[in-house]
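Severity: low
Component: inverse-folding endpoint
Summary: output formatting inconsistent between runs
Steps to reproduce: submit the following structure tokens with default settings.
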């Protein structure tokens, strides 16, 4: 069985000796770095499952080290837990703002660290598997936070953004999503490259407090854009319900025509709205009218 790897960064390694022993006893492989610069060098050699980071260190402190880690796509997924004697709110906020996921106050209590570490390692692994699954499916994922910043991107999304936005910063991408997306929240946005390929983005909805998820895919040059209905994967029954709604029928009318209850019709419509990325009956009917004829 593969052992989880934890990188412990502290300018006084002997002060966390007991913690390292506890981690090893719990089955972790422990690496130690005495400062921020050394921690970054370790990451060039091995990618740990989590990092326990001292906040106050001479030279490159824990906050700046964390920011540099999060700036690298290959390392950004690693959960960073700050170890600090600084319990003031401003320092706690600074840790989270730098990209940390949690903090523990020194002198650290080994059992508390183990409990928090296990949770964050498990969550990070689940998120990584989800990212890989998305990329294997030929898609990319972006998450935009409440301030309009790119909070997270899958590896495939990172590659496409670098290609389609070149040397532009993240703000250029989020501006594209905001300006184009505001025009039609249900539309699939596109950014066309000089060679005719297009990067397509579709809003999937809220995933957290003020965060929005976007699904990216690539359309080849000369490839005909599929219709919204073609990519919605509606079931035959959902398609029937939608077609009658597009003809102006009420839920009760559709229920009588298709031999089902109005409640069932409404449930089908909820699924249709979700798959089409629309919020109203009128929007779904208009879309169906255009594409179903």
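Observed output (run 2 of 3):
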């Amino acid at each position: 069985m593969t052992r989880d790897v934890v990188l412990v960064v502290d300018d006084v390694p002997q002060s966390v000796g007991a913690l390292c022993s506890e981690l090893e006893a719990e089955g972790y492989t422990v690496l130690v770095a005495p400062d921020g610069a050394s921690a970054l060098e370790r990451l060039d050699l091995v990618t740990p499952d989590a990092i326990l980071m001292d906040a106050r260190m001479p030279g490159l402190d824990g906050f700046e080290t964390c920011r540099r880690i999060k700036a690298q796509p290959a390392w950004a997924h690693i959960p960073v837990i700050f170890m600090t004697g600084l319990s003031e709110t401003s320092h706690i906020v600074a840790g989270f703002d730098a990209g940390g996921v949690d903090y523990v106050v020194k002198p650290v209590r080994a059992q508390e660290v183990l409990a928090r570490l296990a949770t964050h390692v498990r969550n990070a692994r689940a998120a990584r598997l989800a990212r890989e699954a998305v990329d294997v499916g030929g898609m990319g994922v972006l998450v935009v936070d409440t301030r309009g910043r790119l909070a997270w991107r899958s590896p495939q999304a990172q590659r496409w953004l670098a290609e389609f936005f070149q040397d532009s910063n993240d703000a250029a991408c989020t501006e594209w999503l905001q300006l184009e997306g505001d025009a039609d929240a249900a539309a699939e946005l596109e950014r066309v490259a000089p060679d005719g390929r297009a990067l397509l983005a579709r809003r999937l909805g809220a995933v957290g407090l003020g965060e929005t998820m976007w699904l990216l895919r690539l359309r080849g040059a000369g490839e005909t854009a599929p219709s919204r209905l073609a990519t919605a994967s509606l079931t035959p029954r959902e398609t029937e319900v939608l077609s009658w709604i597009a003809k102006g029928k009420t839920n009760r009318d559709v229920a009588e025509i298709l031999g089902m209850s109005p409640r069932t019709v409404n449930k089908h419509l909820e699924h249709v709205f979700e798959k089409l990325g629309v919020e109203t009956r009128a929007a779904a009917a208009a879309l169906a009218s255009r594409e179903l004829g």
